[in-house]
Amino acid sequence: MARFSPDDQISHVRNSVNIVDVISDYMVLKKAGNNFVGLCPFHAEKTPSFSVNPDRQFFHCFGCGEGGDVFDFVMRQNNLTFPEALASLAARAGIELAPRKMTPQQQKIVAERDALYAANDFARDFFVKSLNAPQASQAREYMKKREMPQDVLETFMLGFAPDEWRALSGFLQGKGVPPHRAEKAGLLVQKEGGGNVYDRFRNRIIFPIHDISGRIAGFGGRVMDDALPKYLNSPQTPIYDKKRMLYGLYQARQECRKTGVAFMVEGYFDVLALYAHGVRNAVATCGTALSPDHVRIIKGYAKKVVLVFDSDTAGINAARKSLPLFEAEKVQAKVLVLPAGHDPDSFVRDFGAKEFLEAAENSQDMIPFLMESAIARHGLSIEGKANVVAEIKEQVAAVSDGVTRSLYIKQIAEKLGVDEAAVLDAVRDAAKTRPKRLPGTVHEQHAKPAEPAPDRMETAILQMMVRCPECAPKVAEKRLIKHFSSNRVRALGLRILEFIQAGGDPGGAGIMNLAVEQDDRSLLARILSHDDPLELPGCMAIIDQFEKSITRRNHAELDRRIQQAQTEGHHDLALRLLVEKNELLKALQARNLKVGAKY
């Protein structure tokens, strides 16, 4: 592995990974001219506004304004610190990092997460080895009964937790993992009252849960009989967030991207059975209800999600609750209800993958499915029809596209034989009570404190320096940047100016190093997203316009101070300020004459 000093390793890592390849691990990108575009993973949209520039190695979303380099994307997408993102991308590029100076807080966070991942790796090895031990005969027989081939067991790293209180605990201590760390990883549980720790998973088949980078973030465990709870999952930890984890996504991501479809099933064995039969684009939530983050993550890999449910009330309720989540993220969702008595596992074992995929082709849109389900329960009596409308009106109200919503209203009215206006009124009433923003949606989670937008002219000056570096000497000569109203933009402008004066290439990827804060990085990415060059005469016109805006601002401030001095009876001060204003007017007239003569 190549090794670089702390001074140049960040730039070397950035230049060694292709930002398009990295982002393509998380979402679908398509070539569009010199750039690549896709649906933004940070906000809901139907039309791609997320752009990636491979030459300058940055991304920018024209919809929500997010932008930055490859480090920013990995940090944001995976909720990592900068040192963690740097280490991840360095490993990808085969670069051995020299030690970097980190703050004590950064060191603590990185060290803790690394230690938890290491503990999980040891636990995975223990569970996998235990599956081949004599005491795991029941587990192996259970796998055989479920027709799980060996290659699937190895791909998903399935294991077994022995029916002992401290088997894993002892193993981890032998590997140097202290009990408190294993407990923090969710592997051990402490007795109430502060007693000894014991293994969380006992006498269960173990399913390691990979994050999208392939690391083991947590585990799921399933009993082999009728004991409860049937499934037991890792608790929330610094590296495991069940609301963001989709079981099987690491193994399914390429097939999801290839087919544009993801099957959302309910159980771990459903994922494994489909995978074993060649349907390799299925994922499952990890013992929790579908969350906004789940939807946001899966939309990076597939345009369409097919929810595969049992034909029971729980499946119907799950579909009803999930529809607003898919609507909020602009993801197409359909519902596949399997015949009574079947789940995906039993269905593919009995009928095969071909029939499963054919059934999926005929899956229903969410609203028609909910309507048919409601009719099946309530019937078509007068009371039944009223109950059907009452049950699905909120889901129809959640449909964001007005045309689609109106078509559903018409379809419901025709199916029930009721006046379309009555259905419309019910939907409108439901819409009035809907929250403007769903709790827990990506929009709410990543909402930033309101900040004043950068001044349009100040942004134009920065853009001008980047796209027409020849004008930088004139910007410096006139000391325009010192007049910026935003301290943050002023600081960024001075760094850009110094970078150009030192011979730096504003068109290269290195310019992103100048932006320290995330808001600066997003602003700079927006500036860089405009590829068309600017000509010097146009830049000089921008400079002249900015100077005039400075003069107007100064005049307005002088007028305010003159008015205040007169109001307070400071007539001498008011007179001096009037003289100052007249001098400004003379200077402006002289400059206008000079500019006119030149151009």
From TrEMBL:
One of its GO terms (molecular function) is DNA binding. Gene3D superfamilies: 3.40.1360.10, DNA primase, catalytic core, N-terminal domain (3.90.980.10), DNAb Helicase, Chain A (1.10.860.10), Zinc finger, CHC2-type domain (3.90.580.10). It comes from the Bacteria. Its EC number is 2.7.7.101. Binds 1 zinc ion per monomer. CDD domains: TOPRIM_DnaG_primases. Pfam families: DnaB_bind (PF10410), DNAG_N (PF08275), Toprim_2 (PF13155), Zn_ribbon_DnaG (PF01807). Residues 443-453 have a biased composition (Basic and acidic residues). Belongs to the DnaG primase family. RNA polymerase that catalyzes the synthesis of short RNA molecules used as primers for DNA polymerase during DNA replication. This is DNA primase. It comes from Desulfatibacillum alkenivorans DSM 16219. The gene is dnaG.
